[in-house]
Design goal:
Elements: E1 32-34, H1 37-42, H2 45-57, H3 59-88, H4 94-148, E2 152-154, H5 169-179
Parallel strand pairs: 1-2
Helix pairs in contact: 2-4, 3-4, 4-5
Length: about 220
């Protein structure tokens, strides 16, 4: 599941705060409704407050990780340009190209790991904040569905078209705001291992990260 506050990664974009969407009255049609679970969590008051707090507490680390990612992006872009240029020359030296490609891949892997390590503290805080909301999500969904008489819930990405009035995402947000108005961003010592849960996985490189150049 996605975290509230994305860890820094290559080609990272500046962190943007998520604003709470205005509430709308969702009317379920014949017991069928649509819900964006990730959106409900991200737009809940607890998530927005946690994101703000993490942004303040870890500002120096976030800025440093973003700056480092920018440096790596520039370096990798240069390496990729050199490889692409070498591929276009008549009768390219395949052995030399392979060495360039291997060097690019090694540097890209190192860069991703380095920035992810720099991001670990605020990523962990995000995962901890999110875990406190997640434990109430099922209850919030059930309560919102019951109030609307919903028997079947669908995800937005599984639909071709849906009347906006069938969306109960804002109803779930309202339930979450009642069930978990705020969360802590201070990660307890030993969390998450002592809680019996897995540590948050390292984030995949987002769109915009240089892809492996073609070896042809």
């Amino acid at each position: 599941m996605k975290t509230i506050y994305k860890a820094a990664a290559l080609a990272i974009a500046p962190v943007a705060l998520v604003m709470i969407a205005p509430a709308v009255s969702a009317q379920a049609v014949q017991g069928v409704a649509v819900i964006d679970l990730e959106g409900a969590v991200a737009k809940s008051n607890a998530a927005v407050l946690a994101e703000n707090q993490i942004g303040l507490t870890y500002k120096a680390q976030i800025d440093a990780a973003q700056a480092k990612a920018k440096v790596y992006n520039t370096e990798l872009a240069g390496m990729r340009t050199a490889i692409e240029a070498a591929q276009k020359v008549p009768n390219p030296n395949q052995a030399a190209l392979q060495q360039q490609l291997q060097a690019y891949q090694a540097r890209q892997t190192f860069a991703q790991q380095d920035v992810q390590n720099m991001s670990r503290n605020f990523q962990l805080a995000t995962a901890y904040a999110r875990s406190q909301i997640d434990v109430k999500l099922e209850q919030a969904v059930k309560q919102a569905a019951a109030k609307k008489g919903v028997k079947i819930l669908l995800k937005p990405d599984s639909l071709i078209f849906a009347d906006p009035s069938t969306d109960i995402t804002n109803d779930v947000i309202a339930e979450l705001n009642t069930l978990v108005p705020s969360v802590s961003t201070a990660v307890p010592a030993g969390w998450p291992n002592q809680a019996g849960t897995a540590a948050p996985a390292a984030p995949a490189a987002p769109a915009g990260t240089p892809k492996k150049p073609s070896g042809r």
